[in-house]
Amino acid sequence: MNSILIVVSTPVSPPSQEVHLPEINDHPVRLFVKRLDLIHPLAGGNKYYKLKYNLDAAKKAGHSTLLTLGGAYSNHIFATAAAGHLAGFKTIGVIRGEQPQELNPTLAKAHSYGMKLSFMDRPTYRKKNEKAVIDELHKKFGDFYLIPEGGTNQLAIQGTREILTAGDKTMDYVCCSIGTGGTIAGIIQSAMPHQNILGYSSLKGDFIRKELQQLLGKHQIPFPARHHIFTNYHFGGYAKHQPALIQFIKDFKEKTDIPLDPIYTGKLAFGVIDQIKSGYFPNGSKILLIHSGGLQGITGFNQRFGETLDVE
């Protein structure tokens, strides 16, 4: 069985692209996008970093099956299916909610890579981390290597520490989306002392600040002095959107040739550019926006909402 480190060909340093937008040209800052979405067409984005050490651990422990959990449009579900397929694992996806009559594009693609899909009612799913629920999963499926929802655990953070590389040392600000917190945790741990780490939550509510603090504490990662979490660019909450966000994503693609998704990276880029226009960043700042991927979900989004966002 090959490790994902072998079967997924990734550059030593994902490319960073400087972007020039008419609406920020009058502001004396420079904006760069770190294109994690270009690492691999299947197991790319931040999910590559979250999964690679987990897959290695599963292999070393002798597991042949990966089990993970997520929503019906989850990037993590798809990435686990694809990475597991590439690395020779069987995969099981426990999906929140009732089984639909027809699989959406995300679940259909996951299934096409051999993932066995099992649907869990929402009350039980809310208890997914409890021992009783996990024991029931073992009774149903036998032995498996468990990867948590969103992929965030100690090994995931070990991977996301590698997102920032030597070429990023000159950046003054590093900006990324926040979901389960695993990506920003790794970035915080590997950032240079002079760098400001900015997180943009895709979820509605200020609870994310406490959750991130708990995550960092759990993994003994010092909370950096130079950080800020923004909770005002969620556009209604997780998986929610508004017309202004959709138009922004379309305009951004037309001007930069960089596709964004409406769940994470679209909200992140909207927030960063809004702050550039408002003068949040000091003159001369170099700003790095982490493109965490997630483009696989656009097909399902377009189908569900009758939109025409570009997927590449």
Automatic annotation (TrEMBL):
| Pfam family name, one | PALP
Q: Which GO-annotated molecular functions does the record name?
A: D-cysteine desulfhydrase activity
Mind listing the UniProt keywords for this protein, alphabetically?
Answer: Pyridoxal phosphate
List residues of the Tryptophan synthase beta chain-like PALP domain.
19-293
The UniProt record lists the keyword Protease: no
Residues annotated as carrying N6-(pyridoxal phosphate)lysine in the record are 47
Q: Which cofactor does it need?
A: pyridoxal 5'-phosphate
The active site of this protein is located at: 74
The family classification in the record reads:
Belongs to the ACC deaminase/D-cysteine desulfhydrase family.
Please give the name of this protein. Answer: 1-aminocyclopropane-1-carboxylate deaminase/D-cysteine desulfhydrase
